[in-house]
Amino acid sequence: MDDIFSTNQTRDLIPRIREFVETELIPLENAEHLTGNFSTVARILDQKRELVKKAGLWGLQHSVEEGGLGLTLCEFGQVSEVLAYSPFGHYTFNCQAPDIGNMELMHKYAPDDLKRQYLEPLREGHIRSCFSMTEPEFAGSNPTRLGTTAVREGDEYVINGHKWFTSSADGAAFAVVMAVTNPDAAPHRRASMILVPTDAPGFELVRNISIMGDASDHWGSHAEVKYNEVRVPASNLIGGEGMGFTLAQERLGPGRIHHCMRWIGISERCFDLMCRRAATREIEPGVMLGEKQFIQGFIAESRAEIDAARLMVLRTANQIDQFGAAAVRNEISAIKFFVANIMLKVVDRAIQTYGAMGITDDILLAWYYRHERGARIYDGADEVHKSALARSILKGYGLDVKKKAADMAATRA
Amino acid sequence: MDDIFSTNQTRDLIPRIREFVETELIPLENAEHLTGNFSTVARILDQKRELVKKAGLWGLQHSVEEGGLGLTLCEFGQVSEVLAYSPFGHYTFNCQAPDIGNMELMHKYAPDDLKRQYLEPLREGHIRSCFSMTEPEFAGSNPTRLGTTAVREGDEYVINGHKWFTSSADGAAFAVVMAVTNPDAAPHRRASMILVPTDAPGFELVRNISIMGDASDHWGSHAEVKYNEVRVPASNLIGGEGMGFTLAQERLGPGRIHHCMRWIGISERCFDLMCRRAATREIEPGVMLGEKQFIQGFIAESRAEIDAARLMVLRTANQIDQFGAAAVRNEISAIKFFVANIMLKVVDRAIQTYGAMGITDDILLAWYYRHERGARIYDGADEVHKSALARSILKGYGLDVKKKAADMAATRA
Amino acid sequence: MDDIFSTNQTRDLIPRIREFVETELIPLENAEHLTGNFSTVARILDQKRELVKKAGLWGLQHSVEEGGLGLTLCEFGQVSEVLAYSPFGHYTFNCQAPDIGNMELMHKYAPDDLKRQYLEPLREGHIRSCFSMTEPEFAGSNPTRLGTTAVREGDEYVINGHKWFTSSADGAAFAVVMAVTNPDAAPHRRASMILVPTDAPGFELVRNISIMGDASDHWGSHAEVKYNEVRVPASNLIGGEGMGFTLAQERLGPGRIHHCMRWIGISERCFDLMCRRAATREIEPGVMLGEKQFIQGFIAESRAEIDAARLMVLRTANQIDQFGAAAVRNEISAIKFFVANIMLKVVDRAIQTYGAMGITDDILLAWYYRHERGARIYDGADEVHKSALARSILKGYGLDVKKKAADMAATRA
Amino acid sequence: MDDIFSTNQTRDLIPRIREFVETELIPLENAEHLTGNFSTVARILDQKRELVKKAGLWGLQHSVEEGGLGLTLCEFGQVSEVLAYSPFGHYTFNCQAPDIGNMELMHKYAPDDLKRQYLEPLREGHIRSCFSMTEPEFAGSNPTRLGTTAVREGDEYVINGHKWFTSSADGAAFAVVMAVTNPDAAPHRRASMILVPTDAPGFELVRNISIMGDASDHWGSHAEVKYNEVRVPASNLIGGEGMGFTLAQERLGPGRIHHCMRWIGISERCFDLMCRRAATREIEPGVMLGEKQFIQGFIAESRAEIDAARLMVLRTANQIDQFGAAAVRNEISAIKFFVANIMLKVVDRAIQTYGAMGITDDILLAWYYRHERGARIYDGADEVHKSALARSILKGYGLDVKKKAADMAATRA
């Protein structure tokens, strides 16, 4: 039964992508590929990328003018869900974060030279990139607090700073770095985005941070990076001085939709695994696990929650398509915490359904359990989004909490 | 921002109804009307019904051929939400359960005589009706177990039985009674629906059952009823012998949508009350309740959950409009427990936000807290729907739990 | 199996009290007594009080010097649990709030005249009392904000103020009133407790506030009260000027233990009702409700949670006995929200287990559902206790949140 | 403030052990030791074991007759909590599962020869052991279903079977194997425990199963093992033929206490980490994370829950000490699911408090998150214990679910 957000594009694309994922990617799931270094499986995925190209599915997220399919965000969201049935889907289709965000950003705001040198090979999948924003010394709940600086000297910026969670930095060709260029401007006007080639002198990949047991490498890395007097041409600026936060916001709105749709794909995949187990695992002679109400409860609640989550996300994507991300900031906050929590509940129930096997790397579930716990943290922790959403609502009732807090901070200072 | 399920009809109707509810009904909320007997407020509401008629909003749920607006279920759902901002909305607009269900049922299946005698005055709001199905001796989780019988004697049925939760029986003109007419048929073919005037000899209203503190009366009653050798003409049969469950199912599908949309209206109303309180209640000099994160958490989670619930219900209504209720049985089960639980959480959070005032009848919340606890029970308890949904899903995975249980029951017997 | 907090006293008393409750009080539970006015059942309970006296169980909470049994708080807690198996237990044994708190307070701090005139008949059950602290205009989360004043004029206090939730005021002989006597002292030193006879001119019982459907009367009332130029002798002061908060704290520590043990008794009673239903309700031929895992989950989780709650409370009572309430303020905060939430969950599960019957007043559950929702609000809302507990813990880690907030308030002012 | 279960032994031991853990073990926590192979850190821990011996703390779990301290289970529980502040505590003190269980089992039931050859070096920490019970082909919820057989041939048993989750098998000197010796006996009398040296021909360590990202090795391994015609002397039988389940039960009762106390230690450790972070992490200039109510909620709820969990476990340990494990089977089921869930909630809240750092291996939390998810599965999944507890309670109400299920199974067969 077609759902309300289906379009001709999605009706055509989704079965093809689903088949690709099932045929080419799901068979790659095994303990070797689900633990340790990403580079192990990347070698195979790079071959699969050739199949994607042959199938005419490469670059499907791009606008028509970029040679893509011109999918709306709402359509791409539906595609993204299907890609997420495998942890290798987005990478194989070259629409993985952070590259997809960097491509979109550069397409809109990078000068032509940077486009030629970096965006084109990125689109082809010949290079990878990273996004260098988060800093260990400052809480992510207030992104305007940044220690990294980019000082203009002649035709260059000299960059100094300390970042972490610069995801996929290991092996990337360049980083888009968020740095303070205008320290005396208003807080939201202080930072800029600057492209830094990773082979620039002073770019130091301190380490791939071990996350939930894996330091990983390659696209799977989450690097700690230092910028030690790194010099880049002033023309590496993306989108104008002081526009860092504006661009970050523009990036994050659709980015959160991408995450959310990925989480729904993950939820559906784990739901499917859970049902398969429930239907086939014998717990007493002739009695299947799925006959037990505890398991039925897992299945029923998950079904309702995933459906709700998908509707919320596609509704929001649809509104972004119509009105822009700024108009639906509340809805974006809502889906960020709502969907992340549902996904983690579904993953958890699926593990419980599998019993001892559920915690092994013989089955995909542990991978999601480990690597998606961060979903409630990155791109705004649950608590940050809940508070933001509530304050925005309360403003409509005449209480401007943010303003009061700012006044308080001013008083304190 | 218009949402995806808006239509010209809803865009026209909803603001008018909302204004009516706010102007005419919300001012009636006070401890006197929110406790004790419904007849107290009914006197006032009957006057408001005249205003509804004047405003051309009477009978808005009816099909065009019945002189109504021909709203789809999805459109009526949106209207129903707005009516539910007041506990008096549906009654005032004469689209309250169980009358709305009885009207639809009789419109489709009653012989012309019954229509003339009962349906027409019911539509006009001159009489009320009730639906007599639930029995104290049998668990509602299996509706095919019924003790009430209707035995054909000549041109009459002779009805004997014991019912409760025959809601609104007090003062009703007639009951639609579910009774076994064909005890030897297959379980789902045993019962029929028969119209019984409440002044028929042998119809005994034992009591208005006290529910959560109120026995109430009039439309607000939930009666225990005995049928003692009640004789009615055979022509009082609605829809054919043995069709009782088929008709009940047909009634329950849209009925659950009606409930769910009502619950969303309740949730929105309580959400609004909660936000008003948060924005205006001073807890320390200069500090408002809404500045506290615990309260912000209540608001944010409620906002996300209510939005999700509405999308789920309207999506399901939309599918019923397109494909019929039988095609979306799973979705109906899902919304039944999903939405009821969200509503009760929102009501609870709103009470907590009001503190001591929240448990008083000075504010609407306690009314919903008391009278909607049943939402997780009536029309199928949470547990029944979760189990049904899961079993239906597992059937798609090759495990037919229901069949196994039936085989087991047969073996046991 | 005796548990760790049993003593010879509890081993002797508890079976006797349990039998009394089961024989004399539980049979009184019916819709008539569980709805409407308390005075209806009070007439019967006053006769039962005579049986309590005959059984030598009257006044069991008193110290030996007052002619009581000298139970420790930990022992009385265990007794209180058993009394709470019936909603009429505490009243019948004359150890109901607010009288029990007033008796203890007056025993320790009232001048002899007041003791003779008020305490003695109170102990005998000849009169009742109330405690008048909460005000509608000020959030209960900060008890130092009070609008009621008592101005010394000659040998009298002249009291003006507006209170609500002056529980049991209807028919009480006197109120202990919290009023500001020293407006210029430090916030915690401003208020005093003064005994006000309810027949004093200017004492106005505005109304019995309708709570969750019942305004009730008599001991069951929660009154709104106005003090209009009420004059009482200065000797009606209890415990010294400015000692109001100190006495309130002293009263609240054991008072919260009393509440918590009562809640455990309620939980046990509902648990018992739930299990009886599960074991005997047939849902299919030959299949009992208790065979269903959803219900088993309700039972198992409730069992674990109630046991945990009891241990927490008795441990805390035991520590109060040893070290005083001030030393275990954190533990008291913890049990206040922990136990209230467990009770409400158990009540809710029991209702769900009973299905439609669970929401009727044919069974005790709806009474607790309605009248104990306030448990998460009165004597400090969940949110207040959670915040207080966390701040106290964080102080041990070097973060003095309270001090920071105070500094901020000072800055703001 | 001493708590009710403290004894002179615990008052003496706990500060000494706590200091050891803090000084010697906590500094070992780093990404290198918290990921990958256990053998890396084992080398260091083996040196720490010498310090334990020097400090006279070696073997503290043993009875006096074994040269230990003769701690009660309730006392050892308190010690075990403190050991669990570090993931390396139990190993370093040689009271880690499965060795501690094997030592106790062999002390009671092994013939003298086996004691001399295996138990003595095990006590000294010169060898390690494993316990081989779980089988991939059969659900752990019914432990009487076993595929592994031990057939008596002359003076030998010939063992064939397939096991997994034979924890710590890698490098162990012997396994205690559960195998069917008496296939025609009643289900609970079919299996026996037999000691199998790991160098016996036919003992095949198939692999160390990768769990949540780590296959690990050494004590940290969870092995898949095949027994291919393994021959051992008949005198390797522990405790008599057919006694396998009886011994397993005897082992599991205290074993679950051990687990639960370990989980409380983990909870306390994570609680401490959470509070440290909350007190010191600046989120805005001058504003600490712990000032936020969301975080305060995490702290307060965790504090209450951990305290409740500890009381539940020590109460149960105390009862086992007094009445034996068989008498408190219900209490053991209750703590198994109650405590495991609390621990996992606390770990999760601590991670959320740390934000991005919380998912890194720079801090201990991710280790517990990954390696303790199994707590809700091993030694009886939540669902198994909930169902068992509820059925046992319902038996007291006259409903024997287990018997009905058995009758049903018989009917089916």
Contiguous uncertain segments of 5+ residues of chain A: none
**Which bin fits the share of residues in helices of chain A?**
40-55%
CATH class of the largest domain in chain A: Mainly Alpha
Topology, number of strands of chain A: 10
Q: How many structural units, i.e. domains of chain A?
A: 3
In whole angstroms, how far apart are the ends of chain A? 59 Å
Instruction: Name the CATH architecture of the largest domain in chain A.
Output: Up-down Bundle
Main sheet of chain A: which strands, in order across?
1-4-5-8
Instruction: Characterize the biggest β-sheet of chain A.
Output: 4 strands, mixed
**Oligomeric state as shown:** homotetramer
Calculate Rg of chain A over CA atoms.
22 Å
Question: Strand pairing plus helix content of chain A: what structural class?
Answer: alpha+beta
CATH topology of the largest domain in chain A: Butyryl-CoA Dehydrogenase, subunit A, domain 3
Shape of chain A: globular
The number of helical runs of chain A is 13
β-strand percent of chain A reads 5-15%
Name the chain pair whose interface involves the most residues: A-B, 55 and 55 residues
Pfam family, one (chains A, B, C, D): Acyl-CoA_dh_N
Domain Acyl-CoA dehydrogenase/oxidase C-terminal (chains A, B, C, D): 242-394
Protein name (chains A, B, C, D): Acyl-CoA dehydrogenase family protein
Domain Acyl-CoA oxidase/dehydrogenase middle (chains A, B, C, D): 130-209
Describe it for me?
4 copies of one chain form a homotetramer. Chain A contains 13 helices and 10 strands. With 413 residues, the first copy, chain A, is of the alpha+beta class. Chain A has a 4-stranded mixed sheet. The model of chain A has no long low-confidence stretch (mean pLDDT 95). Chains in contact: A-B, A-C, A-D, B-C, B-D, C-D. At the A-D interface, strand 9, helix 11 and helix 12 of A face strand 9, helix 11 and helix 12 of D.
